[in-house]
Each structure stands twice: as C-alpha cells, then as structure tokens.
Design brief:
The structure holds three protein chains of three kinds. Chain B is mostly helical. Helix content of chain B is 74%, strand content 4%. In chain B, strands 1-2 form a two-stranded antiparallel ribbon. In chain B, a hairpin with a 2-residue loop joins strand 3 and strand 4. The chains are: A alpha+beta, B mainly alpha, C alpha/beta. At the B-C interface, helix 1, helix 3, helix 11 and helix 12 of B face helix 1, helix 3, strand 7 and helix 17 of C.
C-alpha cells in the first residue's frame, strides 16, 4: 500500500542557501506528525512547500496519490494554520470560517451549518458575529483552527500553533488540539521549535537540523533513543560523559570516565574506543549518603533550581565531570536535598546510551 | 523641577499642534466667515468687516446679503459647481485606477527599491505645478513632441488634437494629484500582512477573489484617505482646466476667482467658498468621522 | 481653498528687500514691459536700489492694492483699474511739478487717460494700446481666400468665418471688459454703453461662435499663435507683436499680423501711479521722471512694441513701429477708437455674469 503522504528527496534553495536538504518521509492517514527543530532549520520552508507557497527546487510531493508539483495553493487538499493566525481582520468570526467554503461555492445553508458545527468544535458557539480584534489570543487561535479545518483538508499544516499563547493556555490547548485531531481523523503536520510541545502532541516526530531531517520516530524513540548528539541535546535535557571503553561486563560495558561506569552499548564497541555517554537528568538519583548501587560516585552541588514538581541540580563529580540531575519531589523518604552541599549520585546502566563521535 | 519640566513638556505636546491648527487653519476659516458676512465697498480693504474690534469696542453686524445674492442667482453657481464636482469626481476616479497598481507594486517591492520609488513619486512636487503644466502642453500641442513623433512614425498624417480636450485636462489633473493618491494607498498596502494573503490563497481564493475580498477591503482606509486628498483640492481647481481645457470648463474655483478679482466682491467670494465647504466638504469629513467611530 | 489662503495671507505679504533706507525703491510692473537695461541704468545714474517685481494681470495688482500694505512705491495699473483703486483710496495724487520730464508727454493721450480716471494728477501714461485681432496670414488665406475680412471683427465674430477657422484654432482673451465692448461695436451698439441689454446681446453673439473656440485665455495665445497651434485670436496689440516677433525669431514659417478692426476698438492706458501707502515717494518721482526721458521712453518702446505716451520719444522710435497702423493707428482709425467708462459695481456684476454664462456655455 502506498503511503498517504509521500515526501521524496525534497530540496529548496534560496540563492546559494540550501534551506531544505534532501528530505524524505512518509505519513499514514490520521497521523499527527511534528517537525521539530531550532529556528532556521528549514522546517517552515518545508511546510510552505507542502502548502504550495514555495516550489521545491528538487523532489516530489504526493498527497493521497496525487502529485502536487503543478497544483496551486488554492487547489491543494491542504490547509495551513499560520503562526500569526492570519485572520481576516475585517470579517466576523463566522465569515472567517466560512471564507474557504464560499470559495468552494457551497450552498449557503450548508455553509451556515458547517460554520456552526466548527464553532461548536472549537467551543466558540455564539461568538460568530464577533470581530477577531475583540477576541483573546486563545480564541483567535481556535478561530484560525476552525477556518483551516473548514474545507476538510486531507492534510492540515500548523505553523507553531501554540507559540503565541501563554504557558498555561498552551498546555490546555495542546490537549484540545489532539482531541480535535482524533475526532476528525485529519492528518496533521505541526511545525514547532518546542520539544515539549512536539512530545505531547505527536504520534511521530521528525527532527530537523540545518535543512536535513536527522531522525524520525515516536516521541518515545526520539527521547530514549536519539541517534545523534544533536537530537539528544535538542530533545530534553541531557548530560554527556566522555568515556573510553574498557571491556565487556556481562550485559553491560565497563567504561572509564573519571570513574568506572557500567553502561549499555552495542556489540560494535571495542576496547579503547572513545565514546560519548549520555544520560538524562531524571535518570540520576541524588542522595546524601552512599547507597552502594552500581555507578555511584560522590559529587559537589554547584547550583540548583526549584521547579515545583522537582528540583534541577548541577553537580560536579570526580575529575570535574559535570552532570545535570533532576529529582522529582515524590519521594518523601529523601532528605531535603536542597540543603546539601555534597552528596552521591547513582544511575542504572540501562539509563545510559552511547552516541559515537 | 523635573516634574515641572515633564508637565510643561506634556502641555507643549498637546497644545502646540492645537495652537498650530488654531492659528493656521481655524483663524483663516473664521476670518473667511467674517468676510462672507461683511458688506462690500470700494475701500482698502474692499469690505466693511462684520466683526470689528475698534476704538468703539467690539461690534458685530453681520450681513446675509451675500448669501441672499448667491441664492437669488443660484443657477449661475450651480453649473460651475456641477462642473467642478464632475471634474473632481473623475479626477479622483482616474487617480485611484492609476495609483492602485502603482502603490501595490511599490508596497510589494523590496525595502530599498521602495525608498527610491517613493522619492520618484514625490519628485514632481519639487518643481512648480505650473511648470509641469507647461511641460504637458509642450507634449500635447498639435506641434508638440507627441504629435511630431506620431507624424514622423507615420501613424498619423495630421496632428491629433489632444490639447483642449478632456484627455488633456485629466492628464493634467492626474499628473498633479496622483502622488496624493499613491501615498496613502501605499501606506495601507505596505501594512498588509503577507500571511493574510497566503491564508486567502490557501483557502481556495484565486487572484481576483483575493483582491476583492481581502486586499481591497483592508486597503479601504487608504482608498478613502487618498480620495479625500484628491477630491477636496480638485473641487477648487481651475488653473489646470483653464490651461489645458477648452472653453466649456467654467469651474467653481474660477467663479470664486471672478467674484474676487473681477467683481471685487470679496464677501461674495468668501460666501461661495463657505457654502462649498458646507455642502461638499463637511459631509465627506462627517461621513469619514462616523465611519471611524463605527470601526472603533 | 486657494481663496482662503490668499485671504489669510494677503495681510502679511510684503516686498522682500523692503527697507526704510532713503535710497531704495520698490516697483511692481507688468511682465515683459521694460527694456532689459532700463533698471540697471537708473540704478547706476541715481544710486537708488530698485526691487523690481512683475505681475501679469490687473486683477492681481488690484487685489494687492485693495488689501493694502503692499510695500510697493510705484505700480502700473490700467486706467479703469486705477480709477477704481483711487475710489477705494488705494492711490495718492502725483505732484507733477516733481517730474520735469512730464512735459514730454503726449497731451492727447494723457487727456484721454485722465478723463477715464477722472483726475489730471492720478499718474502718467506709460504705454497704451488697443484690442484687436492677431492672425496667421497663410492659414487664414488658405481657409477664407483672398477676401478674408482682415479689417473687421467679423473675421472671428461671424459664425460662418469662425466655423471655417475651427480646425486651425481660434481663441479669445479672458478679459470681459476688453472683449464685450468690442463685440457691441461689431453689433452696432456704442462700445461705451453700460446698458444691460447691450451686454447681453454681445454675450449672445459670443455664444454663437463659442462652439468653434479652442479656448478662452489671456496668456496662452502668444505662444500658440507664434507656433501655429492657433491661427487667429482676439489679443492685445503688444502681445500680438510679441507673438509675431517670436514666430520670426523661430523661423518656423508662420507670419503673424495684427489689425485694429474698422468697426473700432477700445483703447487702454497703463498708468504709472503711486500707492497711497508708498514709503519711498521721492524715489518714485525720480523713477517716473527717468522713465519720461525721451531716450529712455524710446528704448522701452523699441523693446516692447507698444505705443508710448511720450511724444518727445517719437524721433528715437523704430520707424517700423511708428508706421504700423496696429500700434500707432491711422487718423481714420482713430475716429473709431473709444475709451470704455469705468463700470460701477452693478455693471461689473452684469459684465461678469454675461461673461460667465458665455464661457460656461449656458
């Protein structure tokens, strides 16, 4: 079976600048796919090529079996929700939503019914007559969503859909967005620079760097099994330990990074190899007394920051190795670690992973 | 001391523009109303001011005779007024039709080109408008540059009569007033968010549809401002039709001119000008004001 | 709007360079109305610094005079405008004893002007002239043949002739007081009439040729007739000769001539006069005296091609000018020349209304 959306070897050049560099991926119907990356990585350019505002310099886009090469934005089964929302300021909410339907010359009672249905979907019933300028940021975002959904696109593109909202509203809206997507079953591609947002929303994530798609996978795969140092660093917090492989030790590998550490690793490792050992902060446990577990060593606490649900520490181990440690506040047995100046950390070998180079 | 300066500064910011408006806009207008209510006489000045501050204190003896005279001979003033409004209307329309694509093009150019184009648009203002009209005459005359070219190129045998036609008049009007239309249009078009246009295209609108449903309504403030800037002075225009037009163009501006210079009747001239303001300009300004209210 | 502007600022208008110093003089004269070096010569001779400004219509001069505080010491209005200005108190009498060269004046001309102004001490006639018809010889002959009435107002005022000339272009002055009286003489009424019916008849006669007119304008015809863009026009004598000179100078093959119609025409006189609020009165007298010198007056005539009010200048004037019947009319033509009366406000209004109706085409 051919995939619902096929993006093959897409590149885009602006003059000498290669904004998108040979990107390929496929989507199945109903997926919620996030393009994640720092600003300037080419994710928005890729989105604009999907919408039809930019022509790819090379490559091929197919949606539901149809080649998009010579299809105008107006005729694509694709709609986009802009980061700025791009609402029509001179039209009421209803007319904004109805705009795409009127272009399709639908009968007016059908348009009316569809607008009402969409208003209900985004919880704006009764606000159809208002002008966008009288709405709050969250309401505007929902109008933009309703407008983009009105034509029942096969693919909905969302450019930083939550960036303009404040933090509290953002997490509420995230769930809302997922809800609506699941209700309608429309395929979504969300562009975002916010890894947390990508994690929460997506069924799959594509991480972009410098015009290249560096890794695609489920949020869990991206988080737990980053394939490059860039992905590991960009998605979530992480500490790196430069280590030298000593030898195999049962199911683990013994390595030397200031102190001896047991870590996971593939069979391609050989003795004496230099590797980057990565570990997420929440996988490390900080205690005031040694516990005698594997991979334990003493640290000095350099700095800490309180996050409510937990505390983030910066600690310095033997030979000056630096680690980030996140302690969730759900362990009442722990002494209040914030008063510590020194302590011990330990982590399971299963929590580590190796990134070469 | 500091807060005094601040207070003073604030007062200055509020009162300076108001004072400017008062001195250079309201006072002349009030003086014009005063003259229109005065009696004409052969003296220096050639009217007996209705409102006077003299040795005997303040006196105010308005005479409505001037308005009655205009009322009595209304036909003499109506047709020139119709001519003037027609001229102003079509000049405004043509300016709008020419200015819109130009303003659009400038607004969509890159920033550095925009500056150059705007300077080019304003350049004619650096020369006298009379000079530009004579330059136009030099182009359009039967023995002018254009006819010389057409005859040389074999397109026509006898010169085409372009002067003293509607064509020459409206060429002059457009030449003079086009920048006043382009600038406000440009100002409103340059603010147009590109993503709004893309949103419309994305929702299935083709070019003409985008223009009709998005660009035009959103540039309406510029259209209205430009039309006012052209229409209001064009109503009073008589030099251009006199220089470029045939005999059929008696304009209200010329009628005011004749009242002032030929009949030496400054009060009647002032009265016509006041009526012109009352009938044509005030309603426009009022409608504009209402419009603004309803938007905000 | 323009009007409001004029009204608001007329009070502030003053001559630039105006000072209270003894040795200065502010002159306001018609454009192209003086020989090129006259002012420089006067300055060199007297040491008086002259600020020389120009206007191109009586109306503009009059508005400045009526508004007051113009700052000028000597101006040159046409006699009927001077008469009205004096009525308004805008001018002062001239003390002719301070102008020795006043004796050079042609008394016949000066008397007519004085009669029109209603005073013999209003000022001295600088130049005088007539209103007539300027035409392009070849273009007229081509359309009307050899029997073209180039001695009558009918060349333009007869609709039949006007129709034949429409294609080459005819124009008339935008000056009702110089056109309507002449149309009245063409119709057989006295040119000096102030009868409303006569004015209206003249208006009707003009309306009959209106469809054939290229335009009604006082300043445009000089260039246009010189370039062959129009072929005949009612014009002032001096303007017509300027056009003829320009055509000759351009060697464009157009020959322009001017005539005073046999039915008669109005004479006009431009008079040197002193505004009531002039500051440098003594210098103004010195200037007038200088202008009245025979050699200076002759030089000016030879430059501007208008008839001078100065009799003593005659021997020095170019014979071509003296012998041209369009400039110095023949004795026979003189019999038909007339001077229009100064109209009162009511007549002004009638004239304006008739003129506006004609030019609006109602």
């Amino acid at each position: 079976m051919t995939p619902f959306i096929r993006i093959q070897n897409i590149s885009k050049k602006f003059g000498k600048l290669l904004a998108v560099d040979d990107v390929s991926f496929n989507l199945e119907r109903g997926e919620l796919f996030s393009l994640l990356g720092p600003s300037g990585c080419g994710k928005t350019t890729l989105l604009r090529m999907l919408a039809g505002f930019e022509k790819p310099s090379e490559g091929y886009i197919e949606i539901d079996g149809q080649d998009m090469a010579n299809v105008d934005p107006a005729d694509r089964p694709v709609n986009i929700m802009f980061q700025s929302y791009a609402l029509f300021p001179h039209m009421s909410v209803s007319n904004n939503i109805a705009y795409g339907l009127k272009r399709a010359s639908l009968p007016s009672d059908e348009i009316k019914a569809r607008v009402e249905e969409l208003l209900r979907l985004v919880h704006l019933s009764g606000m159809g007559a208002r002008k966008p300028s009288t709405l709050s940021g969250g309401q505007r975002q929902r109008v933009a969503l309703a407008r983009a959904l009105a034509r029942r696109p096969k693919l909905l593109l969302l450019d930083e859909p939550l960036a303009a909202l404040d933090k509290k509203l953002r997490s509420e809206t995230q769930f809302e967005l997922v809800n609506i997507q699941e209700q309608l079953g429309t395929t979504f591609i969300v562009v975002t620079h916010d890894q947390e947002e990508a994690m929460t929303l997506s069924t799959r994530i594509g991480v972009m760097d410098n015009g290249k798609l560096v890794q695609t996978g489920t949020p869990n795969e991206i988080y737990e099994k980053p394939e490059t140092r860039f992905v590991a660093d960009f998605v979530g917090d992480i500490s790196f330990l430069e280590a030298t492989v000593i030898q195999r030790a049962g199911k683990y590998w013994l390595m030397k990074a200031a102190t001896l550490i047991h870590a996971t690793g593939s069979s391609t490792l050989t003795s004496g190899m230099k590797v980057s050992l990565a570990i997420r902060p929440e996988k490390i446990t900080l205690t005031s007394q040694p516990t005698g577990q594997l991979n334990e060593f003493p640290v000095e606490i350099e700095d800490w920051a309180f996050y409510g649900a937990g505390t983030q520490y910066k600690v310095i181990g033997p030979d000056g190795i630096k680690l980030k440690v996140y302690q969730s506040h759900n362990q009442p047995s722990q002494a209040n670690p914030r008063q510590l100046e020194t302590g011990f950390v330990h982590f399971s070998p299963d929590a580590t992973f190796i990134l070469e180079g | 001391m500091h807060s005094f300066l601040q207070k003073f500064g604030r007062l200055l910011v509020i009162w300076l523009p108001l004072g400017w408006l008062g001195i250079f806009f309201m006072l002349p207008l009030v003086e014009m109303v005063n003259v229109s209510l005065s009696e004409a006489r052969r003296a220096v000045p050639p009217y007996n001011p209705a409102f006077q501050i003299g040795k005997d204190g303040i006196s105010f003896q308005p005479a409505v005779d001037n308005y009655l005279l205009i009322y009595e001979y209304w036909e003499d003033y109506l047709w020139p007024a119709v001519n003037s409004v027609r001229l102003a209307f079509f000049s405004t329309l043509y300016c709008l039709l020419f200015a819109y694509p130009m303003a659009w093009w400038i607004a969509r150019s890159n920033k550095s080109l925009q500056h150059i184009l705007l300077v080019l648009i304003l350049m004619p203002f650096w020369t006298s408008s009379l000079l530009r009209m004579y330059a136009l005459i030099g182009l359009l005359n039967p023995n002018g540059v254009i006819n010389d070219f057409l005859i040389w190129a074999g397109i026509t045998v006898t010169p085409i009569q372009m002067m003293q036609t509607d064509f020459s008049i409206y060429s002059g009007m457009i030449l003079t007033y086009l920048p006043l239309m382009i600038l406000p249009l440009y100002a409103s078009l340059v603010r147009l968010d590109n993503s709004v246009l893309e949103a419309a295209a994305d929702l299935g609108a083709k070019n003409w549809d985008i223009f009709r449903t998005i660009i035009l309504p959103l540039s309406m403030p510029g259209v209205i401002a430009g039309c006012l800037l052209v229409f209001i002075p064009a109503v009073g225009e008589f030099v251009i039709p006199a220089l470029l037009g045939g005999p059929e163009q008696l304009m209200l501006g010329k009628v005011i001119w004749t009242e002032f210079f030929r009949n030496r009747d400054w009060p009647v001239a002032a009265a016509i000008a006041i009526i012109l303001i009352a009938i044509i300009i005030l309603p426009i300004v009022y409608a504009r004001y209402q419009d603004k209210e309803s938007i905000s | 709007m323009r009007f409001g502007f004029i009204l608001a600022f007329s009070g502030f208008v003053a001559v630039s360079g105006h000072t209270l110093a003894e040795e200065s003089l502010n002159v306001y004269n018609w454009s192209d109305y003086i020989a090129e070096d006259t002012i420089a010569n006067f300055e060199a001779e007297t040491g008086i610094k002259v600020t020389y400004d120009m206007y191109d219509s009586n109306e503009v001069l009059e508005a400045k005079m009526l508004a007051g505080s113009s700052g000028y010491d000597l101006v040159v209005p046409t006699a009927d405008f001077l008469a009205r200005g004096r009525e308004a108190g805008a001018y002062r009498d001239m003390d002719l004893s301070k102008i020795p060269n006043a004796s050079n004046q042609d008394s016949e001309i000066q008397d007519q002007a004085d009669k029109m102004v209603g005073s013999d001490s209003a000022g001295l006639v600088y130049m005088w002239g007539s209103t007539g018809i300027a035409y392009n010889e070849d273009m007229i002959a081509e359309r009307l043949g050899d029997n073209a009435p180039t001695d009558s107002w009918s060349l333009l005022l007869d609709p039949e002739n006007a129709a034949k000339l429409e294609d080459c272009g005819i124009a008339i002055l935008d000056a009702p007081t110089d056109v309507l009286p002449n149309v009245m003489t063409y119709l057989g009424y006295p040119g000096t009439s102030t009868d409303k019916a006569h004015f209206e008849a003249a208006g009707d006669a003009l309306s009959a040729i209106r469809p054939f007119l290229r335009y009604i304008n006082s300043s445009q015809s000089i260039n246009d007739i010189a370039n062959g863009d129009i072929c005949a026009a009612i014009m002032w004598s001096g303007d017509a000769f300027q056009a003829a000179y320009r055509a000759e100078d351009a060697e464009n093959g157009h020959v322009i001539d001017y005539y005073i119609p046999d039915e008669g025409t109005n004479l006009w006189f431009d008079v040197m006069a002193i505004p009531a609020d002039a500051k440098n009165i003594e210098n103004a007298y010195k200037f007038v005296d200088y202008m009245m010198r025979a050699d200076v007056a002759a030089e000016n005539v030879n430059y501007v091609w208008y008839a001078s009010g100065n009799k003593a200048a005659m021997p020095d004037i170019d014979p071509d000018i003296l012998s041209h019947p369009g400039i110095y009319p023949t004795e026979k033509a003189k019999e038909k020349l007339f001077v229009t009366p100064v109209y009162d406000a009511k007549t002004d209004r009638i004239v304006t209304r008739v003129w506006n109706r004609f030019s609006a085409g109602n």
